[in-house]
Each structure stands twice: as C-alpha cells, then as structure tokens.
C-alpha cells in the first residue's frame, strides 16, 4: 500500500532531511512550504521524486487539499526565530498557532490518523532545573514558546476529542547540514563554522561554561518517523535531545580540531535573556518511542562542517 506523507516546512533545514528520509523509505511525499526561510536547494536530493506545493499553512483550504489522502503529516513549518516572534507576536502567532491549528483541523477533516508536530525545548523557559523532563511545568518566556505550547495543547485536545494521533516533539538544539548560517538568528554551531571558514575567532557570550544539548538533524528525523508509527503516543509530548551536555567553550575546542582553525575565542558579555543550561531527559522518548540518538557529536559536527565548507565554496 502506498504511504503518503505531507511535510509542512519541507524545504527547511529539518523538514528537508525528513523529506529525504521518507522518500528513501518509499513514501510518496508532498511538501508544503512558502519559501520564507526554506530553500528549494534543500530539496535537491529528492528532486523529481516529490510533489512540491509553494504555499502557506495560513491558507486553510490549501492545507486541507494537500493533507488529503495522507497516512501521516509532519508539521515542521513555523516562524522559528525567537527574536522575530518578540518583534511580531501577532504575525508570528498567525503562523505558529493558527497555522498549526489549520494543520490539525485538516487532519481531522481528512481523517489523517497520524500527525507529528515540531515543538521546542523553549517551552521550559528559564527554569534552571536540569535535565528537563516533560512533566515539568512549562515556563514560556517568549511569544515563540507560548505559540509552541499552544500547539502542544491543541495536539492533546485533538487527540482526545477527535481520535487522531498528534504527537509533539520538543527539539533541543538541532544542528547539521542545511542549517542556514546566513540568518542573523543562526545557531551557535552555524556561527562558529562561519567564523572558522573565514579564519576569524568566534565570540563566546559570557564565560562559555553555559551548556546545551545538541542533537544531529538525522536523529531528529528518526524521532519523527518513530513518533508517526507509535501506537500509544497520541497527544503526548517528548523531549528530543541526546541527554549529553556540551559547553560552548568545549564546542569551540572540539570544533577547532575538526576545522583545523584553533584561534582562541573572544569573550563578550552574556546574551540578554540567555538560558544558562539546557539538557534533555531522554527517558520518555527512549521508553515510549524507542528513540536513541545514533550520531555522536564528533561525527555530527564533522558532517555539518563538510557541508558548510562545500556550500561556502559554492557561494563565495
Ligand atoms: C535555542 C534555539 C531557539 C530557542 C531556544 C530555547 C537554536 C539556533 N536556537 O536557542 O530557537 O528554541 O533554544 O531555549 O537552536 N553563543 C555564543 N556565541 C555565538 C552564538 C551563541 O557564545 O556567536 C552562545 C549563546 O549565548 C548561548 C549558546 O551559544 O548560550 C547557544 O546559543 P544558540 O543561539 O545557538 O541557541 P539557544 O539555545 O540560545
């Protein structure tokens, strides 16, 4: 039987890797992306093998028409920049909240049984307790976090009211090939790669002892596939991280070995509102989804850097 998937935001960083994995696995794949931050280049590997629809998740009718006949929907489209949601809380809510609701509603109406939604560790906010567990109270501290939390609540309600399986994955710090380094809101790994290629020292904000749980994009893709086929995950949320911490100082040190550029970092003042420590408790995803990250940080960093180098030659 043909399995059909819709990936919203499928031309984006995470979405495009998901598309590639689904195509590889024999799925028929439709992508809905408005190309606001996504790029068609990200879909090069699956070119000619997918249906690409340029459009917006705010367009309810369109979302319903592309969801028709799907076995599963993977909802990755979003305004992913926290600062952008701070600047424009209403405009971003139209995408992140109403857009998410449109996706869930399309699944309800078209009887798509399985939906996986991208959420974020941002919902934990500035609670200093680590590791983060799914049953800790959410403490959203940005419109972005509120919007992601709203999506989780809707997913729970749709699962219990309408009998669909909507599963939310709280991504920790995702990195890997295709993460857009040119965005002013790029993550620290992209920024460090950019500095290394330009042979410029990076700036570490604060003392560099703050840490994150970095997860390679292909592991995040595997978590999505497991969530879509899970039989007892409807309405639940899961942390998707590695359970391992890397300080920003160590990140630069490890990365220096990979890039061969070992300049001492410059230290600047801590970033306003920066979260000190972020680390996932991975027990729930492991126990209930059978999810275990497979890519070591060293291998993931090397893969990200290989891509970055090739891309920077290509564009320079
Ligand atoms: C991540 C997400 C963000 C949101 C948030 C929720 C990314 C890119 N961002 O923000 O969307 O979900 O988690 O908690 O995944 N740093 C430096 N030098 C630099 C850049 C960053 O020292 O040039 C530090 C920064 O101060 C921070 C750490 O690196 O302590 C990670 O920064 P980030 O922007 O990559 O990610 P984060 O966790 O703040």
Structure characterization notes:
It is a single chain. With about 325 residues, this protein is of the alpha/beta class. The protein has two domains: about 5-175 and about 215-240, NAD(P)-binding Rossmann-like Domain (Rossmann fold), CATH 3.40.50; about 175-210 and about 245-315, UDP-galactose 4-epimerase, domain 1 (Alpha-Beta Complex), CATH 3.90.25. It has helices at about 15-25, 60-65, 80-85, 90-110, 145-160, 190-195, 215-230, 250-260, 285-290, 295-315; strands spanning about 5-10, 30-35, 50-55, 70-75, 115-120, 165-170, 175, 205, 210, 215, 235-240, 245, 265-270. Helix 1 (about 15-25) crosses helix 7 and helix 8 (about 250-260) packs across helix 10 (about 295-315). The chain is globular. The mean pLDDT is about 95. The structure holds uridine-diphosphate-N-acetylgalactosamine. Uridine-diphosphate-N-acetylgalactosamine binds next to helix 6 and strand 8. Uridine-diphosphate-N-acetylgalactosamine (UD2) binds near residues 122, 173, 187, 205 and 275.
Give the SSE string: EHEEHEHHEHEEHEEEHEEHEHH
The number of helical elements comes to 10
Termini gap? 46 Å
How many domains would you count in the coordinates?
A: 2
Low-confidence stretches: none
User: What small molecules accompany the polymer chains?
Assistant: uridine-diphosphate-N-acetylgalactosamine
Shape: globular
CATH fold name of the largest domain, please?
Answer: Rossmann fold
Radius of gyration: 19 Å
């Amino acid at each position: 039987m043909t399995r059909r998937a819709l990936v919203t935001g499928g031309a984006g960083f995470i979405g495009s890797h998901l598309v590639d994995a689904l195509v590889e696995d024999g799925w028929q794949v439709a992508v809905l992306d408005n190309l606001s931050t996504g790029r068609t280049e990200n879909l090069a590997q699956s070119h000619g093998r997918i249906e690409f629809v340029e459009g917006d998740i705010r367009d309810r009718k369109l979302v319903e028409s592309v969801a028709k006949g799907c076995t599963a929907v993977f909802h990755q489209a979003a305004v992913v920049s926290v600062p952008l949601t701070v600047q424009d809380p209403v405009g971003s809510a139209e995408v992140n909240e109403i857009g998410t609701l449109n996706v869930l509603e399309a699944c309800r109406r078209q009887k798509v049984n399985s939906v996986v939604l991208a959420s974020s560790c941002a919902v934990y906010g500035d609670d200093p307790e680590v590791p983060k567990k799914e049953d800790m109270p959410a403490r959203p501290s940005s419109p972005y976090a509120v919007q992601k939390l709203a999506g989780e609540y809707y997913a729970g309600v749709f699962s219990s009211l309408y009998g669909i399986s909507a599963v939310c994955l709280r991504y920790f710090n995702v990195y890997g090939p295709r993460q857009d380094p040119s965005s002013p809101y790029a993550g620290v790994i992209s920024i460090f790669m950019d500095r290394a290629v330009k042979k410029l020292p990076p700036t570490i904000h604060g003392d560099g002892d703050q840490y994150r749980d970095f997860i390679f994009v292909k592991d995040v893709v595997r978590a999505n596939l497991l969530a879509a086929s899970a039989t007892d995950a409807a309405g639940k949320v899961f942390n998707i991280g590695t359970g391992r911490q890397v300080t920003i100082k160590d990140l630069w040190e490890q990365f220096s070995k990979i890039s061969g550029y070992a300049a001492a970092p410059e230290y600047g003042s801590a970033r306003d509102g920066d979260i000190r420590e972020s680390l996932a408790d991975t027990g729930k995803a492991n126990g209930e989804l059978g999810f275990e990250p497979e890519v070591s940080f060293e291998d993931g960093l090397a893969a990200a850097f290989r891509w970055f180098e090739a891309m920077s030659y290509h564009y320079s």
